[in-house]
Amino acid sequence: MSSIIINKATAEDLDVVQSLGIQTFSETFAEDNTEESMKKYLEESFNTEKVKSELNNPDSLFYIAWEEDNPVGYLKVNTGNAQTELQDDTSLEIERIYVKKSHHGKKVGQLLYDQALDTARQLNKLYLWLGVWEENLRALQFYRKNGFAEFDKHIFRLGEEEQTDLMMKKMLD
């Protein structure tokens, strides 16, 4: 495997972020959810206007993992009012770390997580937090391995379905 490079995304990366988002979310969750729910969620979350607005939001940052010219994963982090829930000025939310299935187990997720950690430290944040579906055991194991602990739960809507996300945080030193 060639080396993975992480680059900050800009508005010019709209198509890459949009297609990566759709592909990786589908690969991760399609087999556990109805086709209708997936279709509705993907249309709401990855339509061009929404992705463009997120890329242009100064409180959201996107990073793309590249293997040569091939985008293989991405990270989205939020501060301030862009955070989906807590909106604590001392925290950085990891909203998404998604990696193409073809690159699972190749440390791409770890590199993206390390980028989130570096970003939090550069912004002088006290902690990282995120929400992860309680049935996404791969992600739960990854975050626990990286020092996250559960502190609450919230409901995540996927189409018409309500799912429970575990909210996790990691204090920074």
UniProtKB/TrEMBL annotation:
Gene3D superfamilies, A to Z: 3.40.630.30
Single GO MF annotation: acyltransferase activity, transferring groups other than amino-acyl groups
Organism from which the protein derives: Chryseobacterium culicis
UniProt keywords, alphabetically: Acyltransferase, Transferase
Keyword Repressor (UniProt): no
Pfam families linked to this entry: Acetyltransf_1
Domain N-acetyltransferase: 4-173
Name this protein carries in UniProt: GNAT family N-acetyltransferase
